[in-house]
Amino acid sequence: xxxxxxxxxxxxxxxxxxxxxxxxxxxxxxxxxxxxxxxxxxxxxxxxxxxxxxxxxxxxxxxxxxxxxxxxxxxxxxxxxxxxxxxxxxxxxxxxxxxxxxxxxxxxxxxxxxxxxxxxxxxxxxxxxxxxxxxxxxxxxxxxxxxxxxxxxxxxxxxxxxxxxxxxxxxxxxxxxxxxxxxxxxxxxxxxxxxxxxxxxxxxxxxxxxxxxxxxxxxxxxxxxxxxxxxxxxxxxxxxxxxxxxxxxxxxxxxxxxxxxxxxxxxxxxxxxxxxxxxxxxxxxxxxxxxxxxxxx
Length: 297
Fold this sequence. Notes:
Blueprint: E1 19-25, H1 39-46, E2 50-59, H2 65-73, E3 76-88, E4 113-116, H3 124-130, E5 133-144, E6 148-157, E7 166-175, E8 178-186, H4 194-205, E9 212-217, H5 222-228, E10 233-234, E11 251-255, E12 259-267, E13 278-284
Parallel strand pairs: 1-2, 8-9
Antiparallel strand pairs: 1-13, 2-5, 3-4, 3-5, 6-7, 7-8, 9-11, 10-11, 12-13
Helix pairs in contact: 1-2
Protein backbone atom coordinates (compact mmCIF):
# COMPACT_ATOMS: atom_id res chain seq x y z
CA UNK A 1 0.00 0.00 0.00
CA UNK A 2 1.32 3.42 -0.97
CA UNK A 3 2.33 5.62 1.97
CA UNK A 4 1.04 9.17 2.23
CA UNK A 5 3.04 11.79 4.06
CA UNK A 6 0.99 14.64 5.56
CA UNK A 7 3.80 17.02 4.57
CA UNK A 8 7.53 17.00 3.80
CA UNK A 9 9.16 13.62 4.41
CA UNK A 10 10.78 13.18 7.83
CA UNK A 11 14.53 13.71 7.75
CA UNK A 12 15.25 10.10 8.70
CA UNK A 13 13.38 8.88 5.61
CA UNK A 14 15.57 10.92 3.28
CA UNK A 15 18.56 8.68 3.94
CA UNK A 16 16.93 5.29 3.65
CA UNK A 17 18.40 2.76 1.26
CA UNK A 18 17.65 3.80 -2.28
CA UNK A 19 15.52 6.58 -3.71
CA UNK A 20 12.00 6.68 -5.14
CA UNK A 21 11.77 8.27 -8.59
CA UNK A 22 8.40 9.10 -10.16
CA UNK A 23 7.22 10.64 -13.41
CA UNK A 24 3.83 12.28 -13.91
CA UNK A 25 2.34 14.07 -16.90
CA UNK A 26 -0.03 16.46 -15.08
CA UNK A 27 -1.81 18.00 -18.11
CA UNK A 28 -1.55 21.48 -16.66
CA UNK A 29 -3.50 20.49 -13.55
CA UNK A 30 -6.81 20.36 -15.47
CA UNK A 31 -8.89 17.69 -17.16
CA UNK A 32 -10.08 17.70 -20.77
CA UNK A 33 -12.88 20.15 -19.97
CA UNK A 34 -10.57 22.55 -18.17
CA UNK A 35 -11.77 21.55 -14.69
CA UNK A 36 -8.86 21.79 -12.18
CA UNK A 37 -7.93 18.89 -9.93
CA UNK A 38 -5.94 18.75 -6.69
CA UNK A 39 -2.45 18.50 -8.12
CA UNK A 40 -0.67 18.88 -4.76
CA UNK A 41 -2.59 15.94 -3.31
CA UNK A 42 -1.92 13.83 -6.40
CA UNK A 43 1.82 14.44 -6.03
CA UNK A 44 1.66 13.83 -2.29
CA UNK A 45 0.23 10.38 -2.97
CA UNK A 46 3.22 9.51 -5.17
CA UNK A 47 5.56 10.13 -2.21
CA UNK A 48 8.61 10.39 -4.50
CA UNK A 49 12.07 11.57 -3.48
CA UNK A 50 12.61 12.78 -7.05
CA UNK A 51 9.51 13.74 -9.03
CA UNK A 52 9.55 14.59 -12.74
CA UNK A 53 6.55 16.52 -14.06
CA UNK A 54 5.52 17.02 -17.67
CA UNK A 55 3.00 19.52 -19.04
CA UNK A 56 3.55 21.61 -15.94
CA UNK A 57 1.75 24.95 -16.21
CA UNK A 58 3.30 28.30 -15.34
CA UNK A 59 0.95 31.31 -15.54
CA UNK A 60 2.29 34.60 -16.82
CA UNK A 61 1.81 36.04 -13.34
CA UNK A 62 1.98 34.19 -10.05
CA UNK A 63 3.78 31.01 -8.97
CA UNK A 64 4.08 28.00 -11.25
CA UNK A 65 2.36 24.71 -10.45
CA UNK A 66 5.75 23.12 -9.76
CA UNK A 67 6.61 25.87 -7.27
CA UNK A 68 3.28 25.44 -5.46
CA UNK A 69 3.87 21.68 -5.18
CA UNK A 70 7.46 22.20 -4.01
CA UNK A 71 6.45 24.65 -1.31
CA UNK A 72 3.64 22.41 -0.08
CA UNK A 73 5.60 19.15 -0.02
CA UNK A 74 9.14 20.25 0.81
CA UNK A 75 10.89 19.89 -2.54
CA UNK A 76 13.63 21.83 -4.28
CA UNK A 77 12.42 22.59 -7.79
CA UNK A 78 14.05 23.04 -11.20
CA UNK A 79 11.91 24.11 -14.18
CA UNK A 80 12.24 24.34 -17.96
CA UNK A 81 9.62 26.03 -20.17
CA UNK A 82 9.19 24.31 -23.55
CA UNK A 83 6.60 26.54 -25.24
CA UNK A 84 3.91 29.14 -24.68
CA UNK A 85 0.50 27.84 -23.68
CA UNK A 86 -2.87 28.84 -22.30
CA UNK A 87 -5.49 27.34 -20.04
CA UNK A 88 -9.08 27.93 -21.08
CA UNK A 89 -11.85 27.80 -18.51
CA UNK A 90 -14.63 25.28 -19.14
CA UNK A 91 -16.88 26.53 -21.92
CA UNK A 92 -20.62 26.93 -21.57
CA UNK A 93 -22.27 23.54 -21.69
CA UNK A 94 -19.29 21.62 -20.29
CA UNK A 95 -20.19 19.02 -17.64
CA UNK A 96 -19.96 20.03 -14.00
CA UNK A 97 -17.43 18.64 -11.51
CA UNK A 98 -19.78 15.82 -10.52
CA UNK A 99 -19.54 14.27 -13.98
CA UNK A 100 -16.85 11.61 -13.97
CA UNK A 101 -15.76 11.63 -17.62
CA UNK A 102 -12.35 13.20 -18.20
CA UNK A 103 -13.11 15.25 -21.33
CA UNK A 104 -14.64 15.29 -24.81
CA UNK A 105 -14.70 11.90 -26.49
CA UNK A 106 -13.51 13.39 -29.77
CA UNK A 107 -11.06 16.22 -30.16
CA UNK A 108 -13.04 19.43 -30.38
CA UNK A 109 -12.15 22.89 -31.61
CA UNK A 110 -13.87 24.50 -28.64
CA UNK A 111 -11.69 26.13 -25.97
CA UNK A 112 -11.51 23.31 -23.45
CA UNK A 113 -8.67 23.02 -20.94
CA UNK A 114 -5.00 23.18 -21.84
CA UNK A 115 -3.85 24.48 -25.23
CA UNK A 116 -0.20 24.39 -26.28
CA UNK A 117 1.51 26.79 -28.66
CA UNK A 118 0.60 30.27 -29.84
CA UNK A 119 -2.97 31.03 -30.87
CA UNK A 120 -3.19 30.88 -34.65
CA UNK A 121 -4.03 34.14 -36.46
CA UNK A 122 -7.76 34.66 -36.80
CA UNK A 123 -8.67 32.48 -33.81
CA UNK A 124 -7.71 34.74 -30.90
CA UNK A 125 -10.93 36.75 -30.80
CA UNK A 126 -13.15 33.66 -31.10
CA UNK A 127 -11.31 31.80 -28.35
CA UNK A 128 -11.33 34.74 -25.98
CA UNK A 129 -14.99 35.48 -26.53
CA UNK A 130 -15.99 31.90 -25.73
CA UNK A 131 -14.24 31.37 -22.38
CA UNK A 132 -11.70 33.07 -20.10
CA UNK A 133 -8.13 32.33 -21.13
CA UNK A 134 -5.00 32.47 -18.96
CA UNK A 135 -1.69 32.84 -20.79
CA UNK A 136 1.55 31.26 -19.64
CA UNK A 137 4.07 28.55 -20.46
CA UNK A 138 4.11 24.75 -20.61
CA UNK A 139 7.10 22.64 -19.74
CA UNK A 140 8.81 20.19 -17.43
CA UNK A 141 9.88 20.34 -13.81
CA UNK A 142 12.14 18.25 -11.61
CA UNK A 143 11.42 18.25 -7.87
CA UNK A 144 13.86 16.80 -5.36
CA UNK A 145 13.85 16.27 -1.59
CA UNK A 146 17.23 14.53 -1.19
CA UNK A 147 20.67 16.20 -1.09
CA UNK A 148 21.41 17.88 -4.43
CA UNK A 149 24.95 18.02 -5.81
CA UNK A 150 24.41 19.61 -9.22
CA UNK A 151 21.68 20.62 -11.65
CA UNK A 152 21.66 21.21 -15.39
CA UNK A 153 19.67 21.35 -18.64
CA UNK A 154 20.02 19.66 -22.02
CA UNK A 155 18.80 21.26 -25.26
CA UNK A 156 17.29 18.75 -27.70
CA UNK A 157 16.16 21.24 -30.31
CA UNK A 158 12.81 21.73 -32.04
CA UNK A 159 11.32 19.54 -34.75
CA UNK A 160 9.48 21.22 -37.66
CA UNK A 161 6.00 19.97 -36.70
CA UNK A 162 6.42 20.32 -32.95
CA UNK A 163 5.22 23.54 -31.24
CA UNK A 164 7.71 22.96 -28.39
CA UNK A 165 11.49 23.13 -28.23
CA UNK A 166 12.35 19.95 -26.35
CA UNK A 167 14.88 19.62 -23.58
CA UNK A 168 15.73 17.76 -20.41
CA UNK A 169 16.51 18.62 -16.81
CA UNK A 170 19.26 16.85 -14.89
CA UNK A 171 19.99 16.59 -11.20
CA UNK A 172 22.85 14.80 -9.45
CA UNK A 173 21.92 13.53 -6.02
CA UNK A 174 23.56 11.52 -3.27
CA UNK A 175 22.09 8.05 -2.77
CA UNK A 176 23.70 5.60 -0.35
CA UNK A 177 27.02 7.42 -0.59
CA UNK A 178 27.05 7.34 -4.39
CA UNK A 179 26.26 9.91 -7.05
CA UNK A 180 23.07 9.24 -9.02
CA UNK A 181 21.99 11.34 -11.97
CA UNK A 182 18.28 11.71 -12.71
CA UNK A 183 17.20 13.08 -16.09
CA UNK A 184 13.64 14.28 -16.64
CA UNK A 185 12.12 14.99 -20.03
CA UNK A 186 9.00 15.11 -22.21
CA UNK A 187 9.62 13.95 -25.76
CA UNK A 188 7.87 14.84 -28.99
CA UNK A 189 5.66 12.40 -30.88
CA UNK A 190 7.10 9.71 -33.11
CA UNK A 191 5.22 11.23 -36.07
CA UNK A 192 7.17 14.48 -35.52
CA UNK A 193 10.52 12.70 -35.80
CA UNK A 194 11.32 12.19 -32.11
CA UNK A 195 13.73 9.37 -32.96
CA UNK A 196 16.31 12.03 -33.85
CA UNK A 197 16.01 13.69 -30.44
CA UNK A 198 15.96 10.38 -28.59
CA UNK A 199 19.23 9.36 -30.23
CA UNK A 200 20.74 12.68 -29.17
CA UNK A 201 19.46 12.22 -25.63
CA UNK A 202 20.90 8.71 -25.43
CA UNK A 203 24.29 9.99 -26.54
CA UNK A 204 24.27 12.87 -24.04
CA UNK A 205 23.29 10.91 -20.94
CA UNK A 206 25.00 7.55 -21.49
CA UNK A 207 28.28 7.83 -19.58
CA UNK A 208 30.17 4.62 -18.65
CA UNK A 209 30.35 4.30 -14.87
CA UNK A 210 27.71 7.00 -14.28
CA UNK A 211 24.57 5.70 -12.58
CA UNK A 212 21.71 7.42 -14.45
CA UNK A 213 17.92 7.33 -14.41
CA UNK A 214 15.78 8.72 -17.25
CA UNK A 215 12.15 9.49 -16.41
CA UNK A 216 9.40 11.12 -18.41
CA UNK A 217 6.58 11.01 -20.91
CA UNK A 218 8.45 9.59 -23.87
CA UNK A 219 5.42 9.46 -26.21
CA UNK A 220 6.66 6.04 -27.31
CA UNK A 221 5.98 2.42 -26.47
CA UNK A 222 8.46 0.33 -24.54
CA UNK A 223 9.97 -1.94 -27.24
CA UNK A 224 11.03 0.82 -29.69
CA UNK A 225 12.23 2.96 -26.79
CA UNK A 226 14.39 0.08 -25.54
CA UNK A 227 15.83 -0.30 -29.03
CA UNK A 228 16.86 3.37 -29.00
CA UNK A 229 18.50 2.99 -25.57
CA UNK A 230 20.66 -0.13 -25.83
CA UNK A 231 22.11 -1.16 -22.50
CA UNK A 232 19.34 0.54 -20.54
CA UNK A 233 16.44 -1.24 -18.82
CA UNK A 234 12.81 -0.34 -18.16
CA UNK A 235 12.18 -0.11 -14.44
CA UNK A 236 8.39 0.06 -14.90
CA UNK A 237 6.17 -1.94 -17.23
CA UNK A 238 2.47 -1.18 -17.46
CA UNK A 239 -0.04 0.82 -19.46
CA UNK A 240 -0.27 4.50 -18.58
CA UNK A 241 -2.40 6.22 -21.27
CA UNK A 242 -5.21 7.18 -21.40
CA UNK A 243 -5.66 7.12 -17.64
CA UNK A 244 -9.33 6.07 -17.65
CA UNK A 245 -8.68 3.02 -19.88
CA UNK A 246 -4.95 2.58 -20.59
CA UNK A 247 -3.98 0.93 -23.85
CA UNK A 248 -0.28 1.85 -24.04
CA UNK A 249 2.72 2.77 -21.93
CA UNK A 250 4.01 6.21 -22.86
CA UNK A 251 5.45 7.12 -19.45
CA UNK A 252 8.72 5.43 -18.55
CA UNK A 253 11.58 5.14 -16.10
CA UNK A 254 14.75 3.85 -17.77
CA UNK A 255 17.87 2.92 -15.83
CA UNK A 256 21.47 2.53 -16.95
CA UNK A 257 23.58 -0.55 -16.22
CA UNK A 258 24.88 1.08 -13.04
CA UNK A 259 21.40 1.25 -11.43
CA UNK A 260 19.29 -1.50 -9.92
CA UNK A 261 15.70 -1.70 -8.71
CA UNK A 262 15.02 -2.35 -5.03
CA UNK A 263 11.39 -3.25 -5.59
CA UNK A 264 9.26 -3.72 -8.72
CA UNK A 265 8.28 -0.47 -10.41
CA UNK A 266 4.61 0.38 -10.62
CA UNK A 267 2.00 2.36 -12.49
CA UNK A 268 0.15 4.46 -9.91
CA UNK A 269 -3.45 5.60 -10.00
CA UNK A 270 -4.04 9.19 -8.95
CA UNK A 271 -6.98 11.26 -10.23
CA UNK A 272 -6.92 14.19 -12.62
CA UNK A 273 -4.59 13.79 -15.58
CA UNK A 274 -4.99 11.81 -18.79
CA UNK A 275 -1.74 9.96 -17.91
CA UNK A 276 -1.07 7.57 -15.05
CA UNK A 277 2.21 8.24 -13.22
CA UNK A 278 5.02 5.70 -12.86
CA UNK A 279 7.34 5.20 -9.89
CA UNK A 280 10.24 2.95 -8.88
CA UNK A 281 12.59 2.47 -5.92
CA UNK A 282 16.17 2.55 -7.21
CA UNK A 283 19.78 2.61 -6.03
CA UNK A 284 23.17 2.95 -7.76
CA UNK A 285 24.73 -0.45 -8.37
CA UNK A 286 28.29 0.84 -8.43
CA UNK A 287 29.95 4.22 -8.34
CA UNK A 288 32.60 6.37 -6.76
CA UNK A 289 31.88 7.96 -3.38
CA UNK A 290 30.33 11.41 -3.58
CA UNK A 291 32.88 14.22 -3.49
CA UNK A 292 32.09 17.59 -2.01
CA UNK A 293 29.03 18.82 -0.21
CA UNK A 294 25.48 19.09 -1.49
CA UNK A 295 24.75 22.27 -3.40
CA UNK A 296 22.85 24.88 -1.41
CA UNK A 297 19.91 26.29 -3.36
